[in-house]
Amino acid sequence: MSAQVPSFTLTVIHADERGAPKNRKKIEWKLLTDLPVQSRRDAIEKLEWYSLRWKIEVFHKILKSGCRAEDSQLRTAQRLTNLISLFCIVSWRIFWMTMLNRSAPNASPDFALTKAEIRLLDQLVKDKNPTSTQRKTLSHYLIKIARLGGYLARANDPPPGNLIMWRGLSRFIDIATGAKL
Q1: For a surface tag, which of 92, 98, 120, 126 has the fewest beta carbons within 10 Å of its beta carbon?
Q2: Based on the number of CB atoms within 10 Å of its own CB, is 42 exposed (0-12), middle (13-18) or buried (19 or more)?
Q3: How many CB atoms are closer than 10 A to CB 98?
């Protein structure tokens, strides 16, 4: 006796990035969906949804790998809830800073860092080109945090990823706590 599998319609959305980038392969996505896709606008909407889903996956990776949320040995639901809430804030900040460095590198450092954090980073991580009169941007300070996490900041290095930002921010928070004490 075999079970009857219900039939449904799938749509394939094939998207290619326009213009081949010089430093990487162009993005090519093939997505299957059972959602209705009747127009180009519908297809673009589904692609945007998928890109948001990927960001959620990256956030959870930071939560699991960086914070190591699954390693906690807490015995009550309330304690675990409190810990995960705290980890979510930390994970969000790391993800947010990583994305800001890519999307708004020329923003003011005040956008993501306090004055005290900026002063401490200036004292802690020396500029690679100290004679430069270039305006110190958000990216400048996020790179300093990444350098604390092992980022080399060579001319051809890609922007630091979430793991490096996690390491750098973790170390920076420990140093900042020590400085306050």
Answers
A1: 126
A2: middle
A3: 23
Which residue, among 141, 160, 163, 161, has the nearest Cα to 152 in the 3D structure? 160
Separation in Å, CA 178 to CA 39, 46, 128, 134, 166: 57, 47, 25, 30, 18
pTM of the complete model: 0.73
Coil, helix or strand at residue 31: strand
pLDDT by residue, tens only, the chain of 181 residues: 567 888 888 999 999 988 877 877 888 889 999 999 999 999 999 999 998 988 899 999 888 888 887 788 888 999 989 999 999 998 999 999 999 988 999 999 999 999 999 999 999 999 877 766 678 999 999 999 999 999 999 988 999 999 899 999 999 999 999 988 8
H-run or E-run covering 30: strand 28-33
Q: Which amino acid is at 43?
A: A
One DSSP character per residue, 90-106 reads HHHHHHHHHHHHHH-TT
**Sequence-separated (6 or more) residues with CB below 8 Å from residue 11:** 32, 33, 34, 35, 36, 37
